[in-house]
Design goal:
By secondary structure, the protein is mainly alpha-helical. The chain has 13 helices and two strands, in the order H-H-H-H-E-E-H-H-H-H-H-H-H-H-H.
């Protein structure tokens, strides 16, 4: 009987000690969160990461990616270009609405992969700037939440957004090369009817690819800036009770962001299809041999220009675009139709007027 009493007292003492440790942990956690938010501006760091790594304030990112696109590179090795890229980054921010942001000095450029193949300025592709990592300097104790792994995820999404902007820029260049000839199309005579038809098909294909790329960019940026961010802010306000909750809520936010960009493991096949379509946009640009070169403002000038466009490559781009779009559609039919993120939500935006339902499989070069 006495032994049972001793055991009961011992268990009660252990429970009291554990409870006191738990109370102490909760107190220290809540004090730490208040210190992070009030003394170390944790919320401001979240906003800055959204602004820069997720390109929420897009004007600086547009300037930066355009500068990368048009810059004349002096070196081919990735690590040799870092000082140049850092200069472009700082210049882009100074010329944007982020000029007076006090956190801009925390940004720095680094090489993500030392094994990156030599850079080719003559052949810009979708992955030409994948070696660029955008870092964000933080100090302890903010590093408890903004860990190196979390910052790596931010940088991975930033690289993906650069790819999107490269595709958009490429299609903008294509349009600049084509639109100067539009007023000549209606003036061509029957002798040049075939050339006019080819030209119209090229313009139509550009519109199709551009619709996909621009819709993808708008979907990704709006989901990152609005939907997942709103969820994150709600969770920070209502679900965080201790430091473990804070770290968990932040990682859920980053996981959602990866899913939005189709960068998660379960969306690998979807990501591959999207990547190949984005590459179509850059390949399309390479078809236009002379770009905005000199031409004669007459029918013959139009014919000469079209003759220099690699039509066989355009047809191949159309084939690749259709194949990957069909595969995406098949994935969409198999995917869940609920939830705020995922292929179903993106496809709804892409096919809002039923355009792709009618366009799939249509050979615009068969006429």
């Amino acid at each position: 009987m006495l032994e049972m009493l001793h055991q009961l007292v011992r268990n009660l003492c252990i429970q009291v000690v554990l409870f006191l440790h738990y109370i102490r942990y909760i107190y220290v956690s809540r004090l730490s969160i208040k210190l992070l938010e009030g003394g170390f501006d944790l919320q401001e760091h979240f906003h800055a990461l959204r602004r820069y790594l997720f390109m929420e304030t897009a004007d600086w990112a547009d300037i930066f990616v355009t500068s990368l696109w048009h810059h004349k590179w002096c070196f081919t090795e990735a690590d040799q270009k870092i000082p140049e890229i850092q200069g472009l980054l700082e210049s882009s921010i100074q010329r944007s609405s982020c000029e007076r942001d006090h956190n801009k000095g925390r940004l720095y450029v680094f090489v993500k992969n030392q094994n990156t193949t030599p850079f080719s300025a003559a052949a810009l592709g979708l992955h030409s700037f994948d070696f660029i990592g955008l870092g964000y300097r933080v100090d302890w104790p903010v590093t408890i939440v903004l860990t190196s792994n979390a910052l790596r995820i931010y940088a991975e999404i930033f690289t993906y957004l650069i790819q999107l902007k490269l595709a958009v820029l490429s299609l903008a260049d294509v349009w600049c090369s084509l639109k100067v000839f539009k007023h000549l199309i209606s003036e061509t005579d029957e002798q040049h009817q075939q050339a006019r038809t080819k030209f119209n098909c090229i313009v139509k294909l550009r519109h199709q690819v551009n619709h996909f790329v621009s819709t993808l960019q708008q979907y990704v940026l709006s989901q990152l800036s609005d939907v997942s961010w709103s969820r994150f802010c709600f969770s920070l306000k209502h679900e965080v009770k201790d430091m473990m909750d804070l770290e968990s809520v932040h990682m859920v936010y980053l996981t959602d962001s990866m899913r939005i960009c189709f960068l998660s493991d379960e969306t690998l096949s979807i990501s591959n299809n999207i990547e190949r379509i984005l590459q179509c946009a850059l390949d399309f640009r390479s078809c236009l041999v002379n770009g905005l070169g000199d031409f004669q403002s007459d029918n013959q000038g139009l014919i000469d220009h079209i003759s220099q466009i690699n039509i066989s490559q355009v047809i191949l781009i159309k084939k690749n675009f259709d194949e990957n779009l069909n595969e995406l559609h098949s994935s969409y039919l198999k995917s869940p139709k609920h939830g705020d993120f995922g292929l179903a939500r993106f496809w709804t935006c892409l096919n809002y007027n039923g355009y792709y339902t009618h366009a799939l499989g249509n050979d615009i070069f068969s006429r």
